[in-house]
Structure formats: C-alpha cells, structure tokens
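Reviewer comment 2.1 asked that we show a complete input and output for one of the modelled complexes. We chose the magnesium ion case, as it is the one discussed in the main text.
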Amino acid sequence: MSYFIDGAAPEAERRQATAAPARTTPEQLRQQLDADMQASGGASPTPPGVPGAIGSTMFDLPGSEDNSVTVLLAQDKINLAPSQMLVRIHSRDGRRYLGIVAAGPFAEPDSLRGDSHMLVTVATRGGEYLPPFHGRAQLAILGEELKDGTLVPPRLRPLPNSPIVPLSDAEAAVVLRTEGDIRLGLVVGHENLVVNVPSQKKSVLPRHLAILGTTGSGKSTTVARLIQQAQAAGMAVIVLDVEGEYTHLHEPTDHDDMVLALKERGLEPTALPPDRTRLYHLAGRETINPQHPHVQAFSLQFARLSPYAAMEILGLSDSEAQQVRFLKAYDIAKDVMRDLDIFPQKNVTAQQRAEQERIVLELDEFERGYPRLTLSFLIDIASACLAKADRAGRDGKKNKTEEPPTEEFKPFNSILTTPEGKRALTIRLNATDMPGNVISWKALLGKLWRLQRLRVFYNEQDGVKPMSYTDLLKPGQVSILDLSDSGASELNNLVIADILRGVQDAQDHAYQAYEKTKDQKLEATLPRVLIVIEEAHEFLSAERIDKLKILFEQVARIAKRGRKRYLGLAFVTQLPAHLPRQVLGLVNSFILHKLTDPHVLDGLKRTVSGIDPALWNRVAGLAPGQAIVSFPHMTRPLLVAIDPTPGKLRLAE
Ligand SMILES: Nc1ncnc2c1ncn2[C@@H]1O[C@H](COP(=O)(O)OP(=O)(O)OP(=O)(O)O)[C@@H](O)[C@H]1O
Ligand SMILES: [Mg+2]
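Response of the prediction step:
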C-alpha cells in the first residue's frame, strides 16, 4: 500500500498535489482503505444484549485510573452520549454501575489514527473521504448500583465490553440528587434536567455559598434568580446591594433577550411580590430607585458596634496611643451612662433592672458595644478628656478637676450640661489616670468626627430609625439594602457588620423563644435566612483582613453558627483572589461562572472538591449564564445553564 508519508512522496507527485488539490478521493484509494478497515474488523458492532445500549466499555490500558472507564460508541450513537450524560453500565459479571460522561464524546476513525498523514492530507486538500469512525468517551464512575437502587462506592470495575445504557432525565435527577424548591437552571447535556437547591436543608444554604465569575459572566443574573426563588420558597432574603442592581426586582424583566431566553425554557418574567419587597437606604443617602413602592431609610446603632471593630473601622490599628485613648473614653462613657441611669436604668421594674445588669455583666465587647451608647455621647466624653488633658498640660499639674472644663467643652448631649451630668462627668474624669498628649486626643477626635459626619448613626435629632432586624426576618420578605450612594467602602463595612450582627441576634432570639416552648406555631415562623453580599471582596479583602480582624472574626462566628440557626451567607465577587482564604474556607457551595485567571483557578481547585479536570478546563470558556454548580446535596458538581432572571435587573443590558 502506498499512503502518502511526509517526504516519501515522489517530488513530481508532490508538486502536482500542491498545484491542483484533489477535490475527490481517488477511487482506488477509497477501495483500498475500505478493504483495510474490513480486514481489521470493520465498523464497531452494535453493543450486545441489553435493550437501549449505545456502546460498551473498553479494555483498560496501563494508564487507566480508578473510578474512570473508557467507553466506545458506534458511529450513529455518538450523539447519544453528550457531556454530563448519565449511563448505567451493565457489567458482564452481573454488577451494575452508574457513570457520567466526564470527557468526550470524541470521534475516532476505526483502525487509523485521527492524526494520520493520510487523513490530515485528505481533510486539508478538500477531499471528501470520511472513513468509518466510532465514539470514545470517558466515564466517571459514580458508584455501584445495588439491587435496591442504592449507590455504593465500587469495589471492582466494570468488565470490558459491558454495554452502557443512558438514563432518562427523571432517573438522572434522582441519581444526581438535584431536587429542591429553589430552581437554578438546566444541566448542560440533558434535554430537561433541572438543578434545584433545597431551602429546607440545614446542610446546604446555611453552610454558605460563593458566586464567582469575571465581569459579565452572569453573577447578578444568577443572584436575581436566587433571590426570586428563595423568596418563593418562603425564605427571608437580605441583599447588600453595593451597586443598586436589585432595586427593580419588584418589576418583571423587560429585557428582550431575557424574555426570549425565559420563554425557551417555558418560564415567564416574574416580579417579586411588591408588598413583600422593601428597599432600604442609609440615613442621609439616596436610593437609586426612589419610585420603589416601599422605600425606607435606616440608621445604624453605634451601640451595636464592638468597640474593637469600631477601632478597626476608624483606622486606629496603627496607633496604639489613639487606641488607648479610645478605650479610655469608652470606659468613662460607660460609667457616666450608669451614673446617669441611661443604662442600666433605675426607673424600671426590678426584673428589667436585673435583666439590664445581666446584659452589662455578660457583654462581650468583641461582639458588640455598650447598650444605648451613641457616637455623639462618645465624642462628648472624648472632648471632655481632651479638655482635661489640655488643661493638665497647661497648668503643669495632673491633679483633680473641680468641674468639667467649661470653655472648651460644649457637649451635644444636653444631659451632660445638667448639674447631675456635670457632676457625674467630673467624678469619672477625676477617678481615672487620664493619658496626656493633646495631639493624640485631637487625632482620635478627628477620626470620631469623621465618622459622625457620615451621619449614619442613630441620633434623636435626625430621627431616622435604626434598622428593625425582626422586619428583615419575616419569612418570604425580601429586603434590598441599596448601598450605591454610600460612597465609601468604610461605610459599607459598617452597614454589613451592623446587619450581620443584628440579624444574628434577632435570629437567636427567635430560636431561643422556640426552643423554650417548642411551640409548633412558633416553629412555623422561624425564618430561614439568606444574606447576599455583593462585591464581597470590598468588605472582606485579603489586604484588609489584617486590619479588620475583629470584624472578620465576627463574620466567621456568624458563619459557623449559621447552620444551627439557619442563616446562610452568599458571597458574590468578580475578584475571588481578593477574598481571604479563610472566607472561602467557610463556604461549602459554589456557583462558578467564567473565570480566566489561572491563579484564581489554582486556588479554587484546592478549595472546591469533586470537580474533575475536564470540568475545570471548561471554566475559562463558559458562556454568560453558564456555571459549574457544586452543592453539598448534589451527587457531584454539574455544568448548568442558569435560568435567566425573571425580575428586572438595573444594569442588565
Ligand atoms: N442565565 C443567563 N441566561 C441568559 N443570559 C445571561 C444569563 N446570565 C447572564 N446573561 C447575559 O450576560 C449579561 C451579563 O450578566 P450579569 O450582569 O448577570 O453579569 P455579572 O457577572 O453580574 O457582571 P458584572 O460583573 O458586570 O456585574 C446579561 O446582560 C445577559 O445578557
Ligand atoms: Mg453584576
């Protein structure tokens, strides 16, 4: 036989071929090839025995690996085994195995190499010759299927030449355990296999979710879908909306592509029920959608903020002098508040008093601040400290002050100008060793002032009420916190810290009340909570984590308790590399949209388990809306075409 072999073709023949490419394969060559194929066994036969079989397992090779087996498919069956198709292997020893197409199907010519010179030449010269071929696919073995249908880790391997039969979508859904009441989308490779998330299971959403992907990869669309579905499943959803993207979700989408894409799946544009949706914005800040039917401003409570977290947010981490002074002022403020009956109060019932004393006694200042302490009160106290330090410096003595410094000291809180107020302050200022150094006090006050000027903390004059966390926790309620006008990530951090703490406390109360009584009625109202943190890298960045240790520890604690109290966090970011490893360590579920940065992918490969290499290879090339979805309730991670958003997204174009 004389196939063309590089360099072996006679010079004249080669020149002729270059000058006039063969349009048709010479008849003689065709016959010769066919004869060769026949001689080596002909086209692969239809697999034996089992009805519906589309192929059979191949013999193993030295490179074969556990939990993976190669299958061969007849030419006309290749399309029946697309990527992610589930198949049952009827092993010749009577055992049954289930597998999923993890790589391929690849088309390989029978008895020739696909890259043989002959085939390459024929193809590149416009030849029409198509030799008989077969399919090859790599199956990941999901397990051995026992007689009663349970799936167990395989002890053996399917024998060679065992037939494989594809599973129906309904059977595949059972095997892949994609059931749940929150619909995410369709598995790629199946006609109609829906991936859902169960909102009831404490082992799924309360063990936290990360939605990652480059810009434009479909994160917000996925989040919008998740919000709508979680609401419909009766969860309480809280969205920290950094860009104001979700401020129109109470209207159905009118985006042409989305409407069309929804229709293709038999879905309709749907709005969130407007009466179950509330749009919040910070005191003194705008919302991007003032037309929303339920807009509400909220303020933050300084008292909720741990003094240690406050120091981090104020940027005191680098200055021990300022930290010492901050804590000094904080302690004096607490004492003065007690003296003036602000907290704990005297004019209450004995029981209430005892309760307040207990709160003070059990207060963990790494968790929260002193009850009822306002920022303006702390500023008043720090100003008094400054005045005292200033006076002591000028008079050259550090001894007692007769009364609070009057000229320099003009408090906001009128209670400090009353005789009792002055007395309490004087006593407390004198009772302590006041650190001197006016410059440090001034620097601290400057920072406290800067925070005060944000005007987001509750004070009686402005009257914007603090957030009511119990409102956020109503089942089926969606609360969008529009932070688009906050202007500073410092402010977003404050809000996020406040909301996480507040929600966790309210959730704890609800659960404690239930646990005391075990009342069935109360159980029905226990909220399942999902908190979505958009642009999570801004809040929890690896660079910042050293400076925001306390805040991070709070998040970590909330995350760890989340499972007990059904509180799930969903971190959304386009820059997963900026998220500290510890954050991803808290997360058990992933929706990975397109990601291209090899470093990011390497990091994720170490974090997210169970995704095989062929699936990882696809992450960089995913289309918008496609994602690899990995949840603990599912048998294995799957490539999913996420459902389009039913509600209106502000930035969707
Ligand atoms: N599930 C989907 N089905 C169909 N199209 C989608 C889907 N998800 C995203 N798209 C398309 O991709 C575009 C970008 O999606 P989206 O705004 O959700 O991405 P993103 O990751 O949030 O981007 P950014 O980082 O800019 O916020 C959408 O406008 C839409 O055209
Ligand atoms: Mg987005």
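Residues 489-517 form the longest helix (29 residues). We note this here for comparison with the apo prediction described in Section 3.2.
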